[in-house]
Every structure is written in structure tokens, then in C-alpha cells.
Sequence to fold (445 residues):
Amino acid sequence: MSADGSRTPACDEAVRARIAAARLWAAHRAPYLASAVFALNPVILEPALDGDSGEPVADPGFRAFPADTRWNLYVEPGTALATPVEEVGWWMLHQVGHLVRGHAARSPVRPEPGHEVGHAAGAVRDEEAHRWNQAADAEINDDLEAEDLRGPAGVVSPAELALPANRTAEEYVPMLDVLVQAMGRGGRALTEAIDCGSAVDGQERAYEESGSGEGLTRLDRELLERSIAAGIQDRISARSEVPSGWRRWAGERLRPSVDWRARLGATIRRGVSTVAGQVDFSYRRPSRRAAAYTGIVPPSMARAVPDTVLVIDTSGSVTDDVLNRLLAEVTGIIEGVAGPDRRLRAFCCDVRPHPVQAVRRAGDIELTGGGGTDMRAGITAATALRPRPDLVIVLTDGETPWPGQRPAAHVVVCLIGDAGHAPGWASAVRVPADPPRRVPVKGES
Ligand SMILES: [Zn+2]
Fold:
């Protein structure tokens, strides 16, 4: 309760009643997420008041009931009172989606540890954050729509935009960029700007001050996610209906060995999307559904694939067996993005880079080297290649000096084991020092 009396007990009570009703609605509509919905911690903000009547008015900036990664749900009283119960409940399910799918940790605009601001500034960063929010929304709303839970007007819907279903946020980013460019020429906006809070992008908001010290701890979240995933598995065993995206999530959540693979795949795909010059597009095969929705004809899409070079740490501290298993993973992911028969260039590197190898398969890479480690030499050699690569993927235990400045190519570091570190300018994903052998999953790309 505020000291200045702007929040009355009656207003607070009405807001709490609405949240309680919305929770029941959400738990009833998606029973497999009931424990998640009840784990959300509503933080009621100071209301925006109408100058004349003194009554709370809705602030559109809070229409998504934004969340933070501690599962606090920020409720702006005027917005809550003006929003139907079903819509508040829909946003609760939506925010649970951002939280359990780790969108904040996957966000390209998440501040690097130790840095308050990220690499881009101002409008560019806002645009990137906004696009990530839309892409993450597309990933979640898909599964809500599969349950006949249609979102409120103005939210992103892959079906209505004629985008392919069941993709990840990383995959939706370049597709949305193309649509936005196409629609910009028609003077229209793709969707309304909706801000889902730091749960979607990892950037703290000013209003989160009021939720500090509240919400779930890291351990709470870990246990909660496991119990949600276990509940979904039980429902699947009992042949209850669960949308496919949630089935996949639960399976991955309960198998940590799949977890790092998913992260590795997401990181590499994100690197590919970042440098691909986004997406190549042509107007040869327009999408009729998209045209029907927006009134303009968006281009059909084909992904441009960046030129990729692998730099492999063959110093004494990493075994060939581990490298071979990881190379199979990495080249499998690149093949999934780029198609088969894609030629790769690879350097083995210890204290110096060995001769470049042009290969088609992981098994064709000859691992040579030993002794000390200096990945600076390997990265310098990779970026000096002609044609110059767009993306450099480094496999290393991270116990190496790194270039002091961002190299001329986007760098993804696959960090083997727990000991080493990756530089702030690279995208990094930690992989186990003893990865299990790859077992192809049916339907996996
Ligand atoms: Zn959202």
C-alpha cells in the first residue's frame, strides 16, 4: 500500500479479485500449466490516475502484464481493471511461455555479464529488442493458438502472418525483418508494439524496483520448471491433450543432455541469422494468406547462408574423441540450416593455426596439433581468409587468450567443460566435457 493514498483498498481488492479470477481461467484452459500460473507473483504497481476523476486509467505500456525472470508479474491497476478476465488469463499463460522457454537468457539484447548496456545503443537497440519480443511472442502464441487460445488484437500470430509454425524465436527474427521491410513500403505496421518485460529480453525495467526481493529464487525456478515438465509428461502418458511445443519443451527440460544441444543449435542458428544479411527474398511466390491479412503482398522467403569457418582447439587439453563428437553436432546443425553438401573451411589451432581444410563432413576434418593454446592465432587466420567468412565457430575449452577487440566476423564459441571462458563480444554456449554420443532424434532438423 502506498503512503500517498493514491491506491485505495477498494481498488487493490478489485485488482486482486481480477487476478484471482484470471488465474482460475488460465489454469482451467491449460491445466498442464496450472502450477506455473499459480507460481506467478503479482506485483501491483502504483496506478496511473485520471487528472479529473482521480480514477485509475489503463496504461497501454502495461497491456502485456510484463514479467521479470523471478516470475514477478507486474500489474498496472488501471490496465487490470480495464481488461477482461479471459484476456488477463491469456497474458498469464503467455508470460509463463516466455519464462519457461528462457527467452531472457536467449535474448540477443541481453546485457553481457558485467556490462550495464549491450553492444548497440538507442534506437538500433530498441528496434532489435522489439523484434526479439515479437519473435518470442510468435514462438509462444503458436502453441496457445493450437489450444484455441487466440490472443488479443494486435499480438503476433504466425498463422495470421502466414509464417511457418513451430519455429523458435531465433528463426522468426529474420522472417519478421523481411515482413516489416515489405510492409514499411506500404506504410503499415506489422503489429502493435507490445512490451512483455525483462522476462523476454533480460533488460531490467525501471518499474521492477517495486518487485525487487520478491519472486522466485534460481532454485525455486529450477524445481518449478522440472515439476511442470514432469506434469506434462504424466499427461502425455495418460493420453491427455498437450500442444506439441509444450511436449517438446517438457522432453528437453527433463533430459539435460538435450538441453545443451538445443542451446548449441539455437546459438549457431542465431549466429547464422545475425550475419545472413537477414534473408534473401523475392516476389516470385507471394503468400496469399498474408496478403489477405495485411492487404499487401509480402515476399516469399529463402534463407541466405553465411560463409562459415570452424576453428578447432587441438591443444593437449581437449581430446580428439570429444572434438569429434562435438564436430558431428556442429556440422549437423550447420547442415540443417544450410542444406547438405555445404562446404566448410576449418582450422585446427594450438599455439598456431594449422593449414586450412575444406571439407563436407565432420569426419573429413583431420585433427592435428597439441601442446599450448592461443585461439587469437586461429581467429586471426580465419578472418584473414578470402573470401572472408561471415561466421566463425570456435570449439575450445576456453583456456586461451582471446583477441582484445571484436573480430571482423561474428564469432560463436562452443565452450567445452566448465573451466574456461569466452570473451564478451562472442556468442557462447557451454557444452559438456564428456558429451554423450549423438543419437538422431526423429523429425530433428
Ligand atoms: Zn510476449
User: Anything to note?
Assistant: The pocket of zinc ion is lined by residues 64, 94, 98, 136-137, 196, 200 (CB under 6 Å). Residues 306-431 form a domain with the Rossmann fold fold (CATH 3.40.50.410). The mean pLDDT is 82. The radius of gyration is 24 Å.
